[in-house]
Write a structure and sequence with these properties.
By secondary structure, the protein is α+β, with helices and mostly antiparallel strands. It has two domains: about 15-160, Glutaredoxin (3-Layer(aba) Sandwich); about 160-203, no CATH class. It has helices at about 40-55, 55-60, 75-85, 100-105, 145-160, 180-185, and strands spanning about 15, 20, 30-35, 65-70, 95, 120-125, 130-135, 175, 195, 200. The strands form three sheets. The protein has a five-stranded mixed beta sheet. The chain has a three-stranded antiparallel beta sheet with strand order 8-10-9, with no helix packed on it. Strands 1-2 form a two-stranded antiparallel ribbon. The longest helix has 17 residues, at about 145-160. The radius of gyration is 20 Å and the shape is elongated.
Length: about 200
Amino acid sequence: MPALLGQKAPDFVASTTKGPVTLSSLKGKWVVLFSHPGDFTPVCTTEFMAFTKRYDEFRRLGVELLGLSVDSIYSHIAWVRDIKKNLGVDIPFPIIADVDKAIASEYNLIDVKAGNTVRGVFLIDPNQMVRWMIYYPAEVGRNIDEILRVIKAFQFNWDRKLATPANWQPGQEGIEPAPLTVEDSEKRDGHDGTQTWYLKYVK
């Protein structure tokens, strides 16, 4: 069963640069699983350094980062060592070596024409449900600020059961779910934060 939005994330056992990892062992945590087209490539290198720069922020949010590509564990190790030696950045999170493409196939991360992994991101919640997925083309690097914003929005929803409006940032108002009956819609009339019966902001 492939990974689908709002569905259970497929479990996996993987070899990584930090040793074996299973997705099920991370239950209770938020997980960002992200794939890259290939080791020793320029855009991917900038992304891994950007993730590393914000690594402490991800950890404060209770998020585990998992990189992935179909390169071998030896390629991953050599790339990580090269980034540290030549660029002064020590990659702190595991990188999955998905040589047989089993995990990438389950998460729909294979570029069929090129045979490598696409630039994808999956956010998996503490119950191991897929909450968000996004794909970038090979020539466009990811925006780490946006990934963190989305995580914070989901955690806000998790804690407060409120949705977030367009361009929401932490500290801003949330949105209550729309009422499902005429009676409930009428109860909103005249209340603070109500823009119209189906749109109500909550501080």
